[in-house]
């Protein structure tokens, strides 16, 4: 029975391409579903034979570990050389965006807490 390996929602194209290459290299029989026209389904990469899932899952876990380490190293390098985005740099470059976002967060928190505050009286 088919088993979903990777839901493609919010997956960058380079990551999906790397996963396809990894599966091809490991000679894994898989297929891909495309996103729906209305965005209900994002598509995915499916394993045809569910019995291979533990082996393929181990491959994907190792790949994700390497990709995470690479991303963390790239972020650390960006922060070290001053090109990485931080809260302070975002506040300097887009102050209106930051203020509106913070006000929105406060408004949502107030709406969530309001019933509890009214019930405690």
From TrEMBL:
Keywords: Membrane, Transmembrane, Transmembrane helix
Family matches, as Pfam families: DUF6164
Transmembrane segments annotated in the record for this chain: 96-118
Name of this protein: Transmembrane protein
């Amino acid at each position: 029975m088919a088993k979903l390996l990777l839901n493609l929602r919010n997956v960058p194209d380079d990551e999906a391409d790397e996963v396809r290459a990894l599966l091809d290299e490991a000679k894994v029989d898989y297929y891909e579903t495309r996103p729906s026209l209305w965005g209900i389904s994002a598509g995915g990469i499916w394993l045809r034979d569910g019995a291979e899932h533990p082996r393929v899952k181990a491959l994907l876990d190792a790949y994700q570990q390497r990709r995470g380490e690479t991303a963390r190293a790239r972020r650390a390098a960006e922060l070290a050389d001053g090109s990485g985005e931080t809260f302070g740099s975002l506040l300097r470059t887009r102050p209106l965006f930051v203020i509106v976002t913070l006000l929105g967060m406060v408004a949502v928190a107030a709406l969530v807490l309001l019933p509890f505050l009214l019930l405690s009286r």
